[in-house]
Predict the 3D structure of the following.
Amino acid sequence: MKPQPVRTKSSLKPFYAGIVFLALYVLTALLVRTGLTQGFDNQVAIAVNVSLGPVISKIMYLASIYGREGVWIPVVILMLGLGKPNTKMFAIELALLFIVGIIAGTLAKDIWFRSRPFIQLTSIILRVPKETDSSFPSGHAVIVSLGASLLLWKYRKSSRKARVASFLLAFEAAIVCYSRIYNGAHFPTDVIAGIFLGSAVTFIGGFLLERYLLSYLKKLGTIAERVTKILHLPQFL
């Protein structure tokens, strides 16, 4: 897979897109904080939580438990180990943005505590291990939406194989987001806010990395390239 060439300094579209997603996150947070979305959240959370059978429930469980680290860490490793030079540099960028996303999601949870739906609503069935941190925003949604939005952004004009792979991973991210509501771990607006925040990190963070730290990304990519040559790893991506 060959990602889009690194953008020039004159292109501010990714940064503007990130600002829009950040504004949508702030708006969602304000609506949730004021309680205006609670009725909607309660109704949708209860409706989505209804069991769709043992097979679907098992899939949703696996998506919630393994769909974040279990999928996206191997994606970065595969891109870094088996990718061509541009893909290696892109994998490093993705890994750095994941770190930023984790920090942003953790800080967002610390700003305001929201009880999870299985605590607030007695009719909610929890199908995953109990978590006691803030429900808002969904940390799973932050990370998987970050990865998916970055792939869709970078590979939108690449080969058909690369576009298909990015769409499949975006579909996986969507399943993870849905599973967090289905399993009773999050309200819908928790997930929506996580998607907005993850996308904001993608576009703002990606823009800033490529604008101000591009030389360092290239150096790290070169080091990764030398390591894979020493290990005689093939280049497929």
The chain has ten helices and no strands.
